[in-house]
């Protein structure tokens, strides 16, 4: 073999080696870039989740701080004797010893609103209004002082009125057994 043929054969071998190393290097670099991209996307995803959680915790902290401030203001209000007096008058109906308590039986006469409008709005709400015990007591005294209706009408009217009284009694007994608004 001559020198030139050796060079050609060596050149073919080197070119074959270069061509075989090219695809391997390409796929290896492609694999490394893919791993880096996956790692980068995973890092950004974790960052976004942590940032969202941090913002949620900041909002929760702000609401808790506002609630704490409101509760502290309530405590300060209850330490004020004028506020306690006003609440006792409003909620419990307390009066000073020399004062006379006045209870308005028909507030629509004072406020100017129709009772029918109030009835329709209260019928729409499903919550049942429970009166304080002292209001229940005053209502019981008023009911006890009402005169009994005349029974001089016909038997049908008396039967209707007795059935209505039985229904009212059963409703009252149902309310008393539940304990709503009454003191046992």
Automatic annotation (TrEMBL):
Q: Mind telling me which residue stretches traverse the membrane in this protein? A: 20-41
UniProt keywords (A-Z) are:
Coiled coil, Membrane, Transmembrane, Transmembrane helix
Instruction: Report the coiled-coil segments.
Output: 54-81
Q: Taxonomically, which superkingdom?
A: Bacteria
Sequence ranges of Low complexity compositional bias:
159-173
The annotated regions of Polar residues compositional bias extend over 174-184
Basic and acidic residues compositional bias, start-end: 144-158
Region entry Disordered, spans:
144-184
**Alphabetical list of InterPro entries matching this protein:** FtsL/DivIC (IPR007060)
What this protein is called in its record is Septum formation initiator
- Lineage, opening ranks: Bacteria, Bacillati, Actinomycetota, Actinomycetes, Bifidobacteriales
